[in-house]
Design brief:
Radius of gyration: 28 Å
Largest sheet: 10 strands, mixed
Helix content: 10-25%
Structural class: alpha+beta
Strand content: 25-35%
Length: 768
């Protein structure tokens, strides 16, 4: 098994309050440690099956990500009087969208009452309304559904995903203030640790409580949300982070770096040292305006360049129907009104000139000499993303976020008539700046970035060095934009290209339908749905033939596939090609009891025994059968599942092989949070005593966790999906063996459940 040092996600099936299967208490095998407590995982909703002709993408739990009816669904009768006004009136758009989403919410696993309209945007093509999932009055981070309506109010598409279960609670009212104080300190310390920063110079601002389900922003199976507090943490220079802290435990779980009608105001910092990159960089208050809208040019070249590039970027967005100043402008009360603002020539401690630029959530800030058209367009587009899709700056969502900034920034560069718009510079990012070219969109591999999902250059980011690969993995989106616009031959596909004008509209409208946790598969669906919508509008210039080219670009960049790097390993069935197998023991965990295995508390079969209100979603299975799910919630406990009878090993080349997936700790391990580990034991005396199999001949077997080298070998961290493990039993010829799978609680299993899925366990022989 590939050694993994942290888990990129957190998952559990949609589990009821009691995970004890009915009628099994007396048949539990002996436990090595304390019996695991029944987890208090509350089911929110279970995704509805079916949806033929509606659901175009589901994840492993059966939860829809995309609903795109072949023919747009007419508005329900209850809102028919408002449907015709949904493209021109936001209140009508929201009312119609809410009625439409109520019809498809069950496919996502959402309760309509939990979906709160957050904002709506109108355009000549119709409307998009974004719904936020809210459970018990608290927002779910990444839990969103975006409904796209045509001008008649018919539903063209709904995209997004929601949390299916919760685990834990927020502090009671009388304890909330103390909990937030503890959490704030933890957030500051977490950022100081991750960023190697001085905690004394950092400040944290609470954004609010959130339910966090990492399955919404990673490619992990299952869904369970835990209670956290979300903080913005700022410090000297451009230090801008976000951190999440477990609300009841005060434990920092996750911290990530955010470094990254026209009215314009540009200020000159004149090489002043910036301490926080937040309020102390404000243009119009901290620094006086060097050039405001309509004023004569400044004597400072950087001021004039940024002023011009703000205008270029605004022109690009205006051509797409978006008023950039209205969308992302800010008014500091200096009499200059709501404006696109930027401060140039900033410096930071230990760095002058500062060799970068960033959007700080309010305005732009530039180091000296880095103000190019594409860099300016890139950073302002981060502001657009913040106010539209809200793509999290984490994992694939963050890579798409950065790709959008590169794409729209390059569109500005390619259409503003600047002197450096040469053939050699086309699709290059950063040319003409003091940094030089930093990325190539036409050939991302030139700078070490992947150009397709299954590229060996995909950055798995095991140690969370780049927020899960947000900068490197943007290459996939960049390559797609290049191919869609200019065409070319790539990865077995030949594209004609649809040109810049139609590409600009396509990407800008696609931005509006994505949710904050979108992955590349969601982007592919967004591009398809948006192109199909535009092709129906003659004014857009888009045609069905153009959409066919977009589809080829999606195929060429493999957006519908999972990354190949970091995928779980698969053990061979036999070592000799063409070998025949004979089964001695086999179970696919389709029913229980099946006479094959005996389970203890903490293990549940799926739909086969799911009572109403207590169903466990184990549709996470490779072959359509149910799988067995073990959930460990006691840090000191264990849960076990064992074979009911012994199997006689009569011949060499006899193997035990099974499919499994596990989430035992995740990116939280940066702060030493573990949820569990798994081992397998054998008994050659009918179960009287058990021995660990770790030292035997395994393919993808248990290994020593490099973060805890003194502990015994086990399956730890995250499998990244279904993997297969195989144990060679040849040395046990003549013996009768029983086997036991055991999940062990670790550290914080009572705050974040540890999960182990088992499927398709077999004992068999290989022969020619």
């Amino acid at each position: 098994m590939k050694a993994r040092t942290w888990l990129t996600g957190l998952a559990a099936g949609a589990v009821s309050l009691a995970l004890v299967a009915p009628g099994t208490a007396g048949s539990a095998p002996v436990q090595d440690a304390a019996t695991a407590k029944s987890p208090e995982i509350r089911t929110v909703e279970t995704p509805k099956a079916g949806g033929a002709g509606l659901v175009t993408k589901r994840d492993a739990t059966g939860r829809a990500h995309s609903v795109r009816p072949a023919t747009p669904l007419k508005a329900p009768a209850s809102v028919s009087a408002r449907a015709g006004k949904s493209a021109t009136s936001k209140p009508d758009a929201i009312a119609v969208a809410k009625a439409q989403v109520a019809q498809v919410a069950p496919y996502f696993g959402a309760r309509p009452a939990d979906l709160v309209a957050e904002r709506s945007s109108l355009s000549e093509y119709g409307s998009q309304t974004r719904f936020q999932q809210v459970i018990d009055g608290v927002e779910v981070y990444g839990g969103e559904i975006v409904a796209s309506l045509d001008k008649s109010g018919a539903l063209e598409a709904a995209n997004g995903e929601v949390a299916l279960a919760t685990y834990g609670t927020f502090p009671a009212a009388g304890k909330a203030d103390a909990a937030k104080t503890t959490a704030q300190d933890a957030a500051v310390q977490a950022v100081a640790t991750r960023g190697k920063l001085d905690a004394g110079k950092l400040s944290a601002k609470l954004q609010g409580p959130r339910w966090l389900d990492l399955g919404l922003v990673t490619r992990q199976p299952g869904s369970v949300a835990i209670p956290v507090y979300l903080y913005d943490v700022t410090g000297p220079g451009d230090t801008r982070w976000q951190a999440m802290v477990h609300a009841s435990a005060g434990k920092a779980l996750l911290a990530w770096d955010l470094a990254e009608h026209l009215n314009r105001v540009v200020c000159d910092a004149n090489r002043a040292i910036i301490q926080t990159g937040a309020e102390d960089v404000r243009c119009g208050t901290v620094f006086p305006a060097g050039r405001a809208e309509g004023q004569a040019p400044s004597a400072i070249q950087d001021v004039n360049q940024v002023y011009a590039y703000f205008g270029d970027t605004s022109d690009t967005y205006a051509s797409l129907g978006t008023d950039l100043t209205e969308l992302i402008g800010v008014d500091y009360g200096d009499g200059l009104g709501k404006a696109l603002r930027g401060t140039v020539r900033i410096c930071v401690d230990g760095g002058c000139p500062y060799a970068n630029a960033f959007w700080n959530g309010e305005q732009m800030a530039f180091g000296e000499g880095v103000s190019t058209d594409d860099v300016t367009g890139h950073e302002l587009t981060h502001g657009v993303t913040q106010h539209t899709s809200g793509l999290a700056y984490l994992w694939e969502a963050g890579a798409i976020n950065d790709a959008f900034s590169d794409i729209l920034g390059e569109f500005v560069d390619l259409t503003n008539g600047s002197a450096d718009d040469t053939a050699a510079n086309r699709w290059q990012i950063g040319e003409g700046s003091s940094l030089g070219v930093i990325r190539s969109m036409s050939d991302p591999t030139k700078y070490g970035d992947p150009d397709r999902m299954r590229s060996d250059k995909w950055f798995d980011d095991e140690f969370f060095q780049d927020n899960g690969g947000v900068h490197f993995n943007s290459g996939v989106g960049n390559k797609a934009a290049y191919l869609i616009s200019d065409g070319g031959a790539f990865n077995g596909q030949k594209m004609l290209g649809i040109g810049l004008a139609r590409s600009e509209v396509l990407w800008h409208e696609t931005q509006k339908v994505l949710t904050s946790g979108a992955d590349y598969g969601d982007l592919a669906e967004g591009l398809r749905a948006t192109c199909a919508k535009l092709a129906k509008k003659k004014k857009s210039g888009m045609t069905k033939a153009d959409c066919a080219q977009v589809e080829l670009a999606i195929k060429a960049t493999e957006m519908d596939f999972e990354p190949a790097v970091g995928k779980p390993a698969q053990a061979p069935v036999c070592d000799t090609a063409g070998a025949k197998t004979k089964s001695l023991f086999k179970t696919s965990f389709a029913t229980y009891p099946d006479g094959k295995v005996v389970r203890g508390e903490g293990w549940v079969l799926g739909k086969g025994e799911g009572l109403e209100g207590s169903m466990v979603d184990t549709s996470y299975s490779q072959d359509g059968d149910d799988s067995m799910l073990g959930v460990v919630t006691d840090p000191e406990g264990s849960i076990s599942l064992q074979t009911a009878n012994g199997t006689k090993i009569k011949n060499p080349k006899t193997y035990l092989r099974f499919t499994h997936a596990y989430n035992f700790y995740n990116v939280f391990v940066i702060f030493a949070v573990r949820t569990g580990a798994a081992t397998m034991e054998y008994s050659d005396n009918g179960g009287a005593t058990w021995k660990d199999t770790a030292g035997l001949d395994w393919k993808n077997g248990p290994s020593v966790d490099p973060n805890f080298p003194d502990e015994p070998a086990a399956w730890h961290g995250n499998s990244g999906g279904w993997e297969t493990s195989r144990l060679d039993l040849s040395d046990f010829t003549g013996k009768q063996l029983k086997f036991r799978w055991t999940g062990h609680g670790k550290d914080f299993a009572d705050l974040i459940p540890g999960n182990w899925w088992l499927d398709n366990a077999t004992i068999y022989t290989c022969s020619k």
